[in-house]
Description:
Radius of gyration: 15 Å
Order of helices and strands: EEEEEEEEHHE
Strand order of the largest sheet: 3-4-5-8-7-6
Number of strands: 9
Number of domains: 1
Helix content: 10-25%
CATH architecture: Beta Barrel
Distance between the termini: 46 Å
Largest sheet: 6 strands, antiparallel, barrel
CATH topology: Thrombin, subunit H
CATH class: Mainly Beta
Structural class: mainly beta
Amino acid sequence: xxxxxxxxxxxxxxxxxxxxxxxxxxxxxxxxxxxxxxxxxxxxxxxxxxxxxxxxxxxxxxxxxxxxxxxxxxxxxxxxxxxxxxxxxxxxxxxxxxxxxxxxxxxxxxxxxxxxxxxxxxxxxxxxxxxxxxxxxxxxxxxx
Length: 144
């Protein structure tokens, strides 16, 4: 385990443990969101933690593991943004589901990365992950 100090959205810096088996640092941030499955099911959700390559969201309908999805995350207050991410529900339990990010718009990624950097005392951790390629596929999405 590695101990990392993070700043919560509304509070002071606090220590969290990072599991070594993860490729990405997970930051315990609550972001509101919308989880849309490709069969038309769409639910309001909230993150429990996020990283450059995934998130744990809650609550979610049962039986959605191993399905593609679109996750839209919103940040309010001083740091307003909305980002859309194509992902895959990789696991689910009674609390929520883990989503692995597959692809996102390159501008959304830059905004999301900057947001996460502001919530970590050591932004170099994210730079290392990017250098190692632990990020979703970046695209230039265009509205047609």
